[in-house]
């Protein structure tokens, strides 16, 4: 993140370069109307203002400069969008124009040169890769085919917690529990294998999400890139090499038929992708890109990161808010008792009948969207709300701010209050711009079904099977709810709680 740059060294260089530029360069006259924004410093622009939690900083600035605001991030003009009305203009009215992705140094290393789905440029390649992922990996039927796997892994987690919880007052790291169960589910769906102690794939993914989400000064001040003052390039290279070694090893195991699977007849994501290798992405287009090994690796890493880190983060925040709001926890447990019963575990077939669980998850997504800041880039000139936006302008959609907009969500917008979704047809699939936790338009998240089913099952099971109390005589108001910034916004501190088993006479 920008504040980690050695400040003294950076500003000495900045002063020298700034003085030179001010002496020899004069800005060109521009008669076009641009979005308002704070004054920018020479060379670094407004980068110094972002702080450790940019989503919060940008929300605060938008209250002064408006929901469509311009910042000069280094040498890059960037438009910040912070309201649902403005988001609709960008993502619905002009969706095609703003479907581009900026080229960031992170994508060069962490996505094999933008060969996956998340970082690739808008165009035929991206459209075809999305089609492959949607039809072959993320379709409703494919997601449903893994239901037994998900239920088994969550059941194993419940049994483990129950066993540990036999010791009265034992404090559990609930964040670690959630991450571990998500890790196993994702490994078996995507990789077809269990966790391997030889490598820390979870840690590598988390490191990758952290460094990729950082504001890299080299992306915004090009002449700083060779210096790598933040050390991000070194981290990119180190993490990407480690990830490549892990994925390459697993692909070779699949090719040799030595991967460990629960069901030899059940294809995991790598099996499916390997069956498509050397085939054109679009068989009806003779010029279509042919899927190769690099494409497979890039897609696999996209799927793991999107399935694991984002889902684990949402579950942790949901459990945090439930523990902090005993009223909501009690209502959800009452629903689970009435619908599922107190003698059995939750099954995925029960989820559709749990209406209060549904609004608890919606409220969690409103306050803690999987990706707080969504980057786009304009592919041609456009005029939005009377403002001229030039081709190749960066756009950042502050999804976190949109979910907390008091003009939409009333004065208690910061409060966790699931009932605000009662008698509401607000959906999170990107059709209503008041609520777009997964983005919207062409670049909206294609894995919504997979993510939601997993999140709901884990939350429902942990709340149904256990009562959770804070340790050390902490009250709900004492719970630290601070976050840290990256591609996602996970808890800054692990969630610790004491479990008490609730079920009786269960068949399991």
UniProtKB/TrEMBL annotation:
<dbReference type="InterPro" id="IPR002401">
    <property type="entry name" value="Cyt_P450_E_grp-I"/>
</dbReference>
<dbReference type="GO" id="GO:0016705">
    <property type="term" value="F:oxidoreductase activity, acting on paired donors, with incorporation or reduction of molecular oxygen"/>
</dbReference>
<keyword id="KW-0408">Iron</keyword>
<dbReference type="InterPro" id="IPR036396">
    <property type="entry name" value="Cyt_P450_sf"/>
</dbReference>
<keyword id="KW-0560">Oxidoreductase</keyword>
<dbReference type="InterPro" id="IPR001128">
    <property type="entry name" value="Cyt_P450"/>
</dbReference>
<dbReference type="GO" id="GO:0004497">
    <property type="term" value="F:monooxygenase activity"/>
</dbReference>
<dbReference type="InterPro" id="IPR017972">
    <property type="entry name" value="Cyt_P450_CS"/>
</dbReference>
<feature type="transmembrane region" description="Helical">
    <location>
        <begin position="6"/>
        <end position="25"/>
    </location>
</feature>
<keyword id="KW-0812">Transmembrane</keyword>
<keyword id="KW-0472">Membrane</keyword>
<keyword id="KW-0349">Heme</keyword>
<keyword id="KW-0479">Metal-binding</keyword>
<dbReference type="GO" id="GO:0016020">
    <property type="term" value="C:membrane"/>
</dbReference>
<dbReference type="GO" id="GO:0020037">
    <property type="term" value="F:heme binding"/>
</dbReference>
<protein>
    <recommendedName>
        <fullName>Cytochrome P450</fullName>
    </recommendedName>
</protein>
<comment type="similarity">
    <text>Belongs to the cytochrome P450 family.</text>
</comment>
<keyword id="KW-0503">Monooxygenase</keyword>
<dbReference type="Pfam" id="PF00067">
    <property type="entry name" value="p450"/>
</dbReference>
<feature type="binding site" description="axial binding residue">
    <location>
        <position position="445"/>
    </location>
    <ligand>
        <name>heme</name>
    </ligand>
</feature>
<keyword id="KW-1133">Transmembrane helix</keyword>
<dbReference type="GO" id="GO:0005506">
    <property type="term" value="F:iron ion binding"/>
</dbReference>
């Amino acid at each position: 993140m920008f504040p980690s740059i050695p400040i003294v060294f950076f500003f000495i260089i900045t002063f020298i370069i700034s003085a030179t530029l001010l002496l020899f360069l004069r800005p060109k006259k521009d008669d076009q109307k641009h979005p308002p924004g704070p004054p920018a410093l020479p060379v670094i622009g407004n980068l110094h203002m972002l702080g450790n939690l940019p989503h919060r900083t940008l929300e605060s600035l938008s209250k002064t400069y408006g929901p469509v605001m311009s910042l000069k991030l280094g040498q890059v003009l960037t438009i910040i969008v912070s309201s649902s009305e403005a988001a609709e203009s960008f993502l619905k009215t002009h969706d095609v124009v703003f479907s581009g992705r900026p080229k960031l140094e992170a994508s060069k290393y962490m996505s094999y040169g933008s060969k996956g789905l998340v970082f690739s440029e808008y165009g035929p390649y991206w459209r075809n890769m999305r089609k492959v992922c949607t039809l072959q990996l993320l379709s409703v039927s494919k997601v449903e085919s893994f239901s037994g796997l998900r239920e088994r892994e969550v059941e194993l987690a419940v049994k483990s917690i129950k066993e540990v919880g036999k010791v009265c007052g034992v404090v559990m790291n609930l964040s670690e529990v959630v991450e571990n169960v998500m890790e196993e589910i994702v490994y078996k769906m995507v990789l077809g294998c269990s966790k391997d102690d030889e490598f820390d794939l979870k840690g590598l993914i988390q490191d990758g999400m952290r460094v990729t989400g950082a504001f890299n000064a080299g992306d915004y001040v090009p002449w700083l890139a060779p210096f790598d003052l933040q050390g991000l390039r070194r981290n990119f290279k180190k993490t990407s090499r480690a990830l490549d070694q892990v994925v390459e090893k697993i692909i070779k195991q699949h090719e040799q038929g030595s991967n460990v699977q629960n069901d030899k007849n059940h294809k995991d994501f790598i099996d499916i992708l390997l069956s498509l290798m050397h085939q054109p992405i679009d068989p009806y287009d003779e010029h279509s890109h042919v899927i190769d090994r690099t494409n497979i690796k890039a897609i696999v890493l996209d799927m793991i990161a999107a399935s694991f880190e984002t889902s684990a983060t949402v579950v942790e925040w949901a459990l945090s808010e439930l523990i902090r709001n005993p009223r909501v926890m009690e209502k959800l447990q009452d629903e689970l008792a009435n619908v599922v019963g107190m003698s059995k575990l939750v099954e995925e077939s029960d989820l559709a009948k749990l209406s209060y669980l549904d609004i608890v998850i919606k409220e969690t997504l409103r306050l803690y969207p999987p990706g707080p800041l969504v980057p786009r880039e304009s592919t041609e000139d456009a005029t939005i709300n009377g403002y001229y936006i030039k081709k190749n302008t960066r756009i950042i959609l502050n999804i976190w701010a949109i979910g907390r907009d008091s003009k939409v969500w009333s004065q208690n917008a910061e409060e966790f209050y699931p009932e605000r979704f009662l008698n509401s047809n607000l959906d999170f699939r990107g059709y209503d711009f008041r609520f777009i936790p997964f983005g919207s338009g062409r670049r909206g998240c294609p894995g919504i079904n997979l993510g939601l089913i997993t999140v709901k099952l884990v939350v429902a099971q942990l709340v149904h099977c256990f009562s959770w109390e804070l340790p050390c005589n902490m009250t709900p108001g004492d719970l630290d709810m601070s976050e840290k910034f990256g591609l996602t916004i996970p808890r800054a501190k692990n969630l610790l709680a004491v479990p008490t088993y609730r079920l009786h006479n269960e068949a399991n």
